[in-house]
Structures are given as structure tokens and as C-alpha cells.
């Protein structure tokens, strides 16, 4: 994907990816469209980092999306000289580290390569994300709990999830909770923490750029180990909000700011 052929500057938008076309259109596509409109003198390129998703799209739909190395080669062939790489990753975790390695392998092929940072990198980022979410879910009563599902990672950057949960509480949102699918805070922790609030209802929402497989299955699925099922088993009425972070304009604005700060 490329726009405005009169310049040698480019922005490479790097996402984990999704095999759900409907959520892609409302999240990754919208982020890229906002970037293209905000930076009209740049070419816009796409790369996804999930090998599993790239393979699935190729086999199931006949769709090819560049991985990071392929996108760098693509820009090299197109005569791009200056590249700003903006990940749509939530944290500075394993995917982001590997992405940087792939990009920097092409350092000699470009005059300038700069990196924008993932969504949650600074304290300002965390506070802006909290504001976006509390504005979006402002109608939830104080006697009901809102639980966000992050991905989680063995990378030390996983600490940001617990820090964000603390930020919710520090700013007065005692009925908001942050957990992860694959790390800490875990579902076991959430059941205890949410239980101490004794909410009349539990709302669940993905804390991921797209509302894809984790949102549909691990969060809202009917299997006994889904978050929805576990909270229902604990006695709470549950309402799921399957909206990816990329659907919120305020979240997309943070990525635009990160690009400006990188240039």
C-alpha cells in the first residue's frame, strides 16, 4: 500500500495482524488511513509480524501481506530513502523487539530510519489511554465492574499491565480492572480482585488493538475457560464489549503523536 509518489519519505505501519477482516477494517485499516491523511507527503506501507496470521490469510483467502523484512525490501525497491516505523503494538514487548531487529538489518539501505513507540510507552501514554477508555465507558455504574483483557507476555514490559491497573485506581476508577490472557494479572487474580468489589454486573472488553481471536474466544467464548464463562460461573451477569482499541479515535491519535515525536 503506497500513497503520494512525489516523495522518498515513508511510514511503515507494523501490526501484529488479524485474520478477522471485520475488525481489521475498523482498527488497523483506520489507523493506517488516519496516518495517510495526517502525513500526506509520505508513502504508507504495511507490515504484519504474526507468521501464523500471515500464513492463515495466504492459505485461506489467497491474501499476501508483507512481513517486516518484505516491507523493507519493498520500500528499497521503490526508492524510499527516509523511513519512520510506527508499530501498532500495545507494549514494548517481544514482537516490538523482533520488529526492530528486522528493520535495522536494512540500516545501510536507507538514509534515515526512525522508530515511533508502541501505544503504552510513557506515563503520558498511560494517562491518555485511561482517559479514552473512561470516556468511552463512562456510562457504566460504579457498582458494576469493567475488566479489560490484555494479551500478556513473558517480556519484562508486561509490568505495564499491572501499572495501568494501578493507574485506574489511582485516578479514582476503582471498578476498572486490567488483566492478561497469558501473564499477570491473571484470571485468578481478577476473580479475587473483582470479587472484593462485589459488583452487580461484570463488563468485559479487549485491551488489544483488534477484537480478534482472543476477544471472540478467550474473552467472550462459550468454553468453560473463557473469561465470560468463568465470571458467570462465579455468579456475575456478564456483558461483553467486542471493540478493539484501534476503533477509538483517541487511541489512534496517540499513534499519530508518536509518529510526530519520532520525526
Automatic annotation (TrEMBL):
Domain of life: Bacteria
Annotated InterPro entries: Anaerobic_Co-chelatase (IPR010388)
Bilayer-spanning residue ranges: none
Name recorded for this polypeptide: Sirohydrochlorin cobaltochelatase
Source species taxonomy: Bacteria, Bacillati, Bacillota, Clostridia, Lachnospirales
